[in-house]
Write a structure and sequence with these properties.
heterodimer, A: mainly alpha, 2 helices, about 5% strand, elongated, B: alpha+beta, five-stranded antiparallel beta sheet, 6 helices, about 35% helix
């Protein structure tokens, strides 16, 4: 049971880690596309959303580390 | 040798480059592009990377926002699933006591974050697919699959023809269609798909290339 719990914990943490990488890629793409075309207010709005999204993913990883 | 035929004298109208042509009144008025804009003439708050100092954007096009309805609807439906499962499980006599509560505490936020990612990427795919017409060029920015983007541009003088089509009931109701810009020779043709007011967009581009549609 201990081993099963450990395997589940490692799997969940690995999944969330991959997800963090994905959110970083999305954030990077928002930066790249904002460089290609800039819409004064809309570009900043999307950048903020992408940054919040990235930090939420990191928060989830920390929460999983603590809770599981 | 005597002249066999002398054509009646007529003045040849020299086509001015679009940049120096007098702009029609609709393109003189400055427009404003917000987050959900799909059609804007002469936007003052848009810039693209290779834009020259004195180059003005005359037309800004994106797909009509109604084309996003499928992913918005799917997102809303999927958002309700974690709420419905605790209601449905007792009805189906399913025992979930073997699932650690900590796992559910992490899984549900993870599910909603993943759903948010889906919505964000879908929105970005619509947001960054832009068709820009300036006095000198046409720029087509395509963004797809999170990491793929393509920027194509051509001079207004290289454009041979512009046309549009509007097919279907929904596109007629919401007045959106596809605008096609044909360029000379081996150059890639440009297309702006599902853009609002395709007739007006075609008219603006046609006037810029010196033709009347």
């Amino acid at each position: 049971m201990e081993l099963t719990t450990l395997i589940v914990k490692i799997t969940v943490l690995a999944l969330i880690s991959f997800y963090i990488v994905f959110t970083f890629v999305v954030l990077n793409q928002v930066s790249v596309m904002n460089r290609i075309v800039t819409l004064t207010h809309a570009s900043n709005f999307l950048k903020i959303i992408a940054v919040i999204h990235f930090f939420l993913a990191i928060s989830l990883f920390i929460a999983a580390l603590v809770i599981l | 040798m005597q002249d066999i035929f002398v054509s009646p004298h007529h003045s040849v109208k020299k086509e001015e480059p679009a940049a120096h042509q007098e702009l029609p009144p609709e393109l003189k008025k400055k427009g404003h592009v917000h987050v959900f804009s799909s059609f804007c003439t002469s936007p003052h708050d848009v810039r693209f990377e290779s834009q020259q100092e004195n180059e003005k954007i005359l037309l800004f096009l994106r797909s009509h926002f109604i084309t996003n309805i499928s992913w918005i609807f799917l997102t809303i439906v999927l958002a309700f699933i974690p709420i419905l499962i605790p209601i449905l499980l007792p009805l189906l006599n399913m025992d979930t006591s073997f699932v650690p509560s900590g796992l559910l505490t992490i899984f549900i936020p993870f599910y909603y974050l993943a759903l948010f990612s889906y919505a964000l990427v879908s929105f970005m795919t619509w947001f960054y697919n832009i068709f820009i017409v300036t006095g000198d060029r046409v720029v087509d920015i395509d963004y797809s699959n999170t990491v793929i983007h393509n920027v194509a541009e051509t001079k207004i003088t290289h454009i041979q023809d512009v046309n549009y089509n509007q097919v279907g009931f929904i596109s007629s109701i919401f007045n959106y269609g596809d605008v096609y810009v044909q360029t000379a020779g081996n150059e890639v043709n440009f297309e702006a798909l599902s853009v609002p007011n395709p007739r007006k967009a075609t008219e603006i581009i046609a006037n810029l290339i010196g033709g009347k549609k």
